[in-house]
Amino acid sequence: MLVAEVRTKAMDDTKPNEVMLKMLSKVKGIVSACTVSDGDRRIILDIEQDAENRSLMGLGKVINTGVRAVLNCDAVYVALTNMDFDQKCHPALIIKKGDKIVGEEIRDEDRIAQLSGRKDVWFLHKNFVIYKTRISFPQDIMQKICYFETPGIPADWSITGDNTASRTIIYSNPVTPSDVYLKKRYFNGLDEQGLGTILIGTKLL
Fold first, then answer.
1. Distance (Å, rounded) from C-alpha 188 to C-alpha 29?
2. Running DSSP on this structure, what letter comes out for residue 17?
3. N or C: which end of the chain has fewer CB within 10 A?
4. 139-161: buried (b, 16+ CB within 10 Å) or exposed (e) per residue?
C-alpha cells in the first residue's frame, strides 16, 4: 500500500486527535472532520463487507482495500468534503487481474488524451480505461477472474513545526451505504449535493 510521509507537530498521548483534526481543517475541500470510534470502525467494516458481496452495476465484485487499510491504522478519522476537495491524479477505482492492473480511472487530462489515440485501450467511461492486451473484457470480469478495487490514496497534506514527528496518512472513499451512515453518525445527516465523505487513517512510522 502506498502511503505519503507527512510531518506533524509532536503529539503527546493526550493531544494527537486535536492536532490531527486541526491539520485536517486546513485541507482545501474538507468541511469538517471527526475521530471515528472503535465501535464505528467495526460497523463500517461490516457495511463494506456487505457491499463486497454485491456487484458493481452487475459487472463484478468490488473490494475496498483502501477502507480496509484505513480502518487498520492507529487512528481513524472521517471528513466531510465538498467539490473543492482534490484527490489529485490518484484513481478511486481500478480493475485487477491477480496483482496486475488491467483497467483504471484516469484523472489526468493529458494522460486521457494520450490514451485516447491508442488501439490497445478501450474507454469504459470517459475517464475509465481498459487495457485490451491485459484482459478479455467483459468475460474475465463476468467469470470473476478480475475484480474492481478501490485503493487507498496517499495524502499529500502536511504541517510542520518544531520537534516534528513522522506519520503516514492515507485516505479512501467509502461505499455509498457507509457514506450515508457516516453522515448520519458524525455530521447530523447533512447530505447536500456535492458533499461526500472520506475515511482517513494515520500510522506512526
1. 19
2. H
3. C
4. ebbeeeebbbbbbbbbbebebee
Confidence of residue 147 (pLDDT cuts 50, 70, 90): confident
- Where do the H-state alpha helices sit in the chain? 16-24, 38-52, 65-71, 109-116, 139-142, 176-186
**Amino acid letter for position 82:** N
User: CB within 8 A of 54, min separation 6: which ones?
Assistant: 62
The cell 500500500 sits on which residue? 1
From 204, 203, 188, select the one nearest 72 (Cα to Cα).
Answer: 203
Residue 204 parent element (H or E): strand 196-204
User: Can you spell out the DSSP letters for 101-145?
Assistant: EEEEE---HHHHHHHHT-TTEEEEETTEEEEGGG--TTHHHHTTS
Digit-coded pLDDT (tens) for 73-112: 999 999 999 999 988 888 889 999 999 999 999 999 999 9
Q: Let me know how long the chain is.
A: 205
Rg of the chain, C-alpha, whole Å: 18
pTM for the predicted model, two decimal places: 0.81
Tell me the C-alpha to C-alpha distance, in Å, between residue 157 and each of 137, 150, 173.
37, 20, 17
Q: Name residue 199's beta-bridge partners.
A: 78, 172
pLDDT tens digits, 21-61: 988 999 999 999 999 999 999 999 999 999 888 765 556 67
